[in-house]
Task: structure prediction
Amino acid sequence: MKSRWNDADAAALAGDPLELRVYTSRLLGAEPSLVLHGGGNTSVKIRQKNLFGREEHLLFVKGSGWDLKTIEGKGFAPVRMETLLELATLERLADSDMVRVQRSAMTDPGAPTPSVEAILHALIPHRFVDHTHTDAVVTITNTPRGPERIRELFGERVLYVPYVMPGFVLARHVYEMTRGLDWSRYDAMVLLHHGLFTFSDDAKESYERTIRYVSMAEEQVPTRAAIDLAGAVETATPEPDRAELVAIATLRREVGRALGAPAIARSTRTHEARAFSERRDLAEVASRGPLTPDHILHTKRVPMFLPRELDATSIASSVEGFARDYRAYFDRHATGRGLTMLDPAPRWAIWPGHGTLSFGPTAVRAGVVDDITRHTRAAIDLAERMGGWVALPERDLFDMEYWELEQAKLGKSVAPVLQGKVALVTGAAGGIGKASVTALRAAGAAVVALDVSPSITTTFTGEGVLGLVCDVTDRAAIERAVSRTIQAFGGLDVVVPNAGIFPSSQPIAALEDELWDRTIAVNLTSQMALLRACAPFLLLGHEPAIVVVASKNVPAPGPGAAAYSASKAGLTQLARVAALELGPKGVRVNVLHPHAVMDTALWTPELLESRAKHYGMTIDEYKRNNLLKVEVRSKDVADLVVAMAGPLFGKTTGAQVPVDGGSDRII
Result:
């Protein structure tokens, strides 16, 4: 591992220790194998004058919820050192009380909750402290001679601490170990099975000690490349066939049932993942436990093992078996402790010959599981070459999973209405389609956005959305898009057929064949092909729904719009038939009829001006030319898309709802 320190960058921050702390924290955060998904924490001790002019000794420690990769100054919680050091002298303290007292000792009540390891940071009498969950160090300690190996490697400048549960118990243990200790003899501390601390009064020295010790550990593992997962280049893998896609969607459905809510499933079919799934000792090594104890909060203790050949029966049996084993695991350790059992759904699965799958209530959470399991697979492989993979005992892992701080979070958050659902929207690069993607994401859904425009690949950013170029008149392209949807998110719950064109006005007597054919192909035939491709996966979805975007021209057509009106009327009729066919199978199909939605690319300022002038209106009057005198925007239609996809319309199918501000021609 190479140092990322830059003297010029650091020199500009030399007068501000907190900004230096942010700088080196981000350097650590740039290395996934050090601080994967929020793992690890950093701190700096600063003396400041308070409002009354009195100097206070403060620990600025990483706040809960912040990631070292992107942390800012406001991500550090300022806590009075006097309080933290006094807490360490207590013989017993519940972690919930520790968190409460730490918050009460903050000088900024608006700052995030301090790390649960704040007391430990305070005990180390150096200005800068860096704590990482380094894969390399933990991998070595997770081998039969792990403690001896790490001591032989690092020597006497490192303090070695046996595994102790994070929080107050760990801080108290280190306090007892180090009373009267000459800290000048040490420049690092290893928490076995947990991670590495380095420290110094100099920011650069503390950071580069981490780099040096991690590099020493990496040199001991059999293959450096295997631990460097962040930049790994995977070989191409074959596209999954239809049977594999159906198996993934079925698996997602069953995991969701065990979870008690829809789940996102990510399929990892890389060469490395498939090779891991074929290990002869797979069931033995992969069931020993996670890479570090904090990973259990994301992955649970063990994966679910799937049979090579999957069908609906074997999938249901596998999920039920995992849930049964999880309940037994809970019963073994929870007796008399007043704990609430977490859901018994697996968080990752191993499918021989196919790779691994990761599950989560959101796309972000499923992605976290996927990243952690990638690192875990590599660590297991390396540890096995070094004598064997040894994780913590089951009881220690249970205590971490059922930590009182985690139990306190239960039931405190309300999930967005569509959390865990997967939606597919066509015509998504602008207008109603774009607004629908945005609204569905805000409601918690993972969304695949399709459009013929190449801009769709960059229209949306962030986790939980996938933009794909797709000409909906190309049936093979639709099939590929549905396949990508299943691979990315595991299934399909909501389909929004929105792609369409509004051709130029032509009376029937002069209607061109090409214009007619093109309009019918885009507005009607492509929608049939889309529904046909999506239907098998909707049947495996969670409370599935189709929301068709039609037009006011269906109930109230206008002259010169034969192609558009007929195509949208045909689409509406297609939706009604779909409601009849799919309703008995649990799939809802409803239709929206928007009108005069003018915040789209179709309505240019010139067109708006000409149409308003034609009717003798101002542009604002033209936009509000309806009974309610309101402007209908893309967002208004999108909000109804979300409502129809959610529980509000849970008992409605075959409905046609206008979104037009009220039209006397329709009423």
About this structure: Residues 224-234 have pLDDT under 50 and may be disordered. The chain has three domains: 7-220, 242-407, 422-597+632-659.
